[in-house]
Amino acid sequence: MNRLRYLGLSLLALLCWLTATAQDPSVTKCEYWFDQQYDSRTTADVSEGTWTKDFDISALNYGLHSIAFRVLTVDGTKSLYGPVVVKNFMKLETTPTGTNTLKTYEYWIDQKFDKRKNGTIDASGIVNFDEDLSALDYGLHNVTIRVIDATGKVSSALVKNFMKVETTPTGTNSLKTYEYWIDQKFDERKSGTVDASGIVNFDEDLSSLNYGLHNVTIRVIDATGKVSSALVRNFMKLETTPSGVNSLKTYEYWIDQNFEGKKGGEVDASGVIDLDLDITELNPGLHNITFRVIDATGKVSSALVKNFMVLEKQDGENVLTTYEYWIDNGEHQSADVPTDGVVMLDLDISTLSEGLHTFNYRVTDKAGHTSGVIFKNFIVKKIKEAAKLIGIDYWFNDGPRTRIAINPAQISIDKDDVIIPLDDLKPRSIMENYTFDVTTQKVQTIKDVTVGIQVFNNEEVGSEAVVETLKDYEFNIDINTIALVNETSDAKAAPQGGQIQGFSFDGAVGDSLHWEITGTDAKIDFFDADGNRLTPEAKTIDGKDVLIIKMPTTTVYALTYGATEAGEMTVKVSIKLALIKGDANNDRQVNVTDIVATVNYIMNKPSADFNFEAADVNGDNEVNVTDIVGMVNIIMKDGTQNTREAMSILRRSGFIF
User: Fold this and answer.
1) What is the CA radius of gyration of the chain?
2) How far apart, in whole angstroms, are the C-alpha atoms of residue 135 and residue 65?
3) CB 539 within 8 A of CB 576
C-alpha cells in the first residue's frame, strides 16, 4: 500500500541536464539497467573517469534489448546525474554444441505457401527437386526455399526468380524474313528474306541522310510467325573530305562582337599566324578576340574565342584614396585610406544573428578606379547565459500536465525542494474488488499509477521526460452520495475511468426496493449500512429492467462506475412495502375486507388496489378458494377478527354450504 501523500521528485537530478556546470567536475559513480527496468538498476564506482564491466545476459530472452547508462558527476558541493545514454543490442540464440546437420527442406512457387512441398536432405547436403511447371503461366515467377536443422530451427527463406519462356513448337524452325527502318521511320521500313545461312546483308542508300547521329532498327520473323525483339544500333554519318591534298588557306578575326569589322589574311606554308593588334582605341577593361580559319575546300572552322584585359595607363604616382565596406546586404560604410595604406576596422557585430555572414569591401584609387568586390565569410557564435530552470511539468497516467513554477528561475534545484501532490490523483479505472467504507463514504481501490516528469528552462526547452510506475497505489475516492426519494428520478453524468457516483435510500427493514438505471452501461453495486455487499435480483417488470434489493438495514447504498461512454444516466428507486400474506387490499392488515376483495377477484370483479401476490396465500401462483381458506385461518389464528362474519360472506358467495 502506498501511504505517502506526496511523491518526492527523486528523479529531478536526472532531468536537470540544463544546469550550468561548475569548475572541474568529476565522475564518481555509474548507474545502468537493462530494457526499461529502472527499479532493478545497478550502481558501480568509477575510478579516474574509467569504468569497464562484463555483463551477464544469460537471463535475458533472445531478441532485441536495450541498456541504459548515466553517470553521477560531483561538481563542488553538488552531485548531479548526467543524461541517460541508451544503446540497443541483440541477443542471438546460440546453436547447441555438438553435431548439427540440415535435416529437411520445404519450398513453394510464387507466394503459394499453403501449397509448399518438402523433403529430406541426404548426407551430401544437396537438395535436388524436379518440379512440374507445366501449369504455370509464361513469364516471371519465383521459388522460395528454406531448410530445417536437427534442432528444429528454420533458416531464413531464400527467394530466386526464374522465367518460364514460351516453348517453340516441336519440329524444324528457322528465321524466314526480316525488316528494318532508319531512325524512327517505322512506316518506311523495308523487308527481305533470310537465306539458309541466316545472315542478313542489306545495302542501304544513306545519301539523303543529314550528317550526324542516326540509328537502324532490325527484327526477324521465324517460320511460326513469331517476331523477335527489335535490335537498335546507332551509327554516325560523317561529312566526307574531298580527295587530294587539303590545307588551311585564310583566316579572319574580330574584336568583341564587332563581326562587321573583321579582318583577315592568308595562312602561309608554316601554318603559323602572327597578329599585331592595335588596341589603343579600346576602352580599359575586359575584351575578347574571335578567330577562325578556312581550308582549301572552303570549309570554315569553329570560332575560337579568347578574353583579354586592356589596362588604363596611369600618369604619375597612383595611390589608394578611399574604401567602402558592408556586411551581407547591409548599409555601405566608407572612409579615407590612411597614408600608410593600412585600414583598421572595429566592427560592431552585436546585432548580427548567429550563423554565417559575409564581409565585403572594395577600394578606389587616385584616378577614380574602383576595385572589384572582395568578400570574406565569417561565423557569428554568441555566448549565451547559462540556461535557468523555470518549471517542472508532471502528469499522471494519460492525464494533462501540471506545471510547478520555479520562481525565481534557478541554475539548478534541489530535489528535496519539490513535491508533487497526490491528493486529487484518480485511477484509470475502478477495480471490481474495491471496498466501501460507509463511515468515510469513500471507496478504496488498488491500481498502478504512471508518473511523468519533465524539466523546462527559460527558453521552454525540455529535458528528456522520465516516466515511472507506482505499483499498487491505494486510491480513496469520494462517492459523492446523492440521497434518493421514493418514485423520484435523478440524472447524473455517467461515471467513467476512476469516477464513482453513489446513491443512498432510507427505508424500513424488509422493504423491497426496485432500482431502475437507464442511459448508460455503467456497473452498479449495492451495500447495506454496514458496508456489506448485497446481491440484487434482476427482473423485467412491465418491460423495464429492474434490480430488486430487500432492505436488510434502514439504509442501502448503490455505487455506479465503469461507464464506457460519456453521457447522462438516470437512477430511480421505488419502494415496495414488505408483503403481508392475506393482505389482498394492501391496507397492511388481514381481516374480512381482504376476503371480500379476494372473492370479488375470483368473481372477475377485482378492485384497483387488489394485491395478487398477497392474496396468493399458499404461493401456488393462483388465487382461488384455498387462498380464502388460508385467509380465514390467518384471521382465526390472530383472534382479533369476527370469524362468523367471514364465514357468512363465504356462504353468501356460495363457497361453503
Assistant:
1) 52
2) 47
3) no
Instruction: Tell how far CA 87 is from the center of its chain.
Output: 21
Q: Which of 375, 392, 476, 494 is nearest to 435 (CA)?
A: 476
264-273, 310-319, 374-383, 639-648: least confidently modelled range:
639-648
Same domain flag for 370 and 395: no
Other beta carbons less than 10 A from residue 455's beta carbon? 28
HEC string for 216-275: EEEEEEECCCCECCCEEEEEEECCCCCCCCCCEEEEEEEECCCHHHCEEEECCCCCCCCC
Q: Which residues touch 164 (CB under 8 Å, ≥6 apart)?
A: 133, 136, 137, 138, 139, 141
Label residue 2 by pLDDT band (50, 70, 90). very low
Residue 451 has pLDDT above 50, yes or no: yes
231 and 144 assigned to the same domain: no
- Mean pLDDT along residues 133-146: 88
Which of residues 91, 124, 146 is at a domain's end? 91
Same domain, 394 and 466: yes
What local confidence, expressed as pLDDT, does residue 373 receive? Answer: 86
Residue 4 is predicted with a pLDDT of: 29
Among 380, 410, 427, the domain boundary falls at 380
Whether 301 and 332 share a structural domain: no
Q: At what angle do helices 592-602 and 625-638 cross, to 10 degrees?
A: 180
H helices within 440-479, ranges in order?
A: none
Contacts of 84 (CB under 8 A, 6+ apart): 14, 68, 69, 70, 464
Among residues 516, 476, 472, 532, which one has the least CA distance to residue 500? Answer: 476
pLDDT at 530: 93
Query: What is the layout of strands, in order, in the sheet containing 139-149?
Result: 117-120, 102-109, 139-149, 158-164
- Give the CATH number for residue 563: 2.60.120.380
Q: What is the per-residue pLDDT across 529-555, written as a single tens digit (0 to 9) for each? A: 999 999 999 988 778 899 999 889 999
Number of domains forming the structure of the chain? 8
Please give the grid coordinates belonging to residue 427. Answer: 485511477
Neighbours of 133 (CB within 10 A): 11
Assigned domain for 5 exists: no
Low-confidence winner among 153-157, 290-294, 321-325 (lowest mean pLDDT)? 153-157
With respect to residue 225, please indicate whether it lies within any of the assigned structural domains. yes
Check whether 86 has a pLDDT greater than 60: yes
Kind of pairing, strands 482-483 and 500-506?
A: parallel
In this predicted structure, what is the pLDDT of residue 21?
A: 33
Q: Check residue 59 and give its pLDDT.
A: 87
The answer to whether residue 449 sits within a structural domain is yes
DSSP annotation of 388 reads: -
Mean pLDDT of the chain: 83
In the prediction, which pLDDT does 8 show? 30
Domain that holds residue 263: 248-310
Mean pLDDT within 310-319: 73
Q: Is 581 domain-assigned?
A: no
Q: Cell for 323?
A: 574604401
